Amino acid sequence: MEIKEIIEKAKKNDQSAFNALLDFFWNDVYGFQLKRTENENDAEDIAIQTFSKAFDKIGTYNETYEFKTWLITISKNIHIDLVRKRKSSIQNRPNQSNDDHFHDIIDESPSPEDKLITEQNLAKLLRDIKKLKPHYQEVINLRYFQELTYKEISEELNEPINNVKVKLLRAKKLLAEIIIK
């Protein structure tokens, strides 16, 4: 099947078309980000965000451009946003360059109120995760709570790595919908 046909099926919300696009273009997007970030985890996360955003906005894809170019552009913009966010958080920290003054050490440990809020948010998140189907719960648990790599998850579940990526992508999307409600 030609890529244009697969894209048309994806525009009609065909899950197998999404899987095919992910399989076909994963290495291009991941490789592009690996060169930019020089970090496998960041490259994987950005690549997944790229496909998630692309699949959400596939109806806006203009066929006059190559699909790969469209994906790479989305990926590049996600990376730029990530870099900007990191830079702004670094720039927002106070900086005293005058050695005559003592340096204030900022206590960044959470206050008791912050700990309580975090625990409540985690409890709510866990309740929301339990609303997902068991196989989605499992993949979220393995990735975000046990912090396994995609390869380790693939071995744990005895599934191809691309299935794990798609399953995680789908689980995150469904979880986001539950949280929004």
TrEMBL record:
Biological processes, Gene Ontology terms: DNA-templated transcription initiation
Pfam families tied to this protein: Sigma70_r2, Sigma70_r4_2
MF annotations from Gene Ontology: DNA binding; sigma factor activity
Domain RNA polymerase sigma factor 70 region 4 type: from-to ranges: 126-175
Classification via InterPro entries: RNA_pol_sigma-70-like, RNA_pol_sigma-70_dom, RNA_pol_sigma70_r2, RNA_pol_sigma70_r4_t2, RNA_pol_sigma_r2, RNA_pol_sigma_r3/r4-like, WH-like_DNA-bd_sf
Basic and acidic residues biased stretches: 98-111
Stretch list, region Disordered: 89-111
Keyword entries, A-Z: Sigma factor, Transcription, Transcription regulation
Segments forming domain RNA polymerase sigma-70 region: 28-87
NCBIfam families for this protein: sigma70-ECF (TIGR02937)
Family in the record: Belongs to the sigma-70 factor family. ECF subfamily.
Name used for this protein in its record: Sigma-70 family RNA polymerase sigma factor
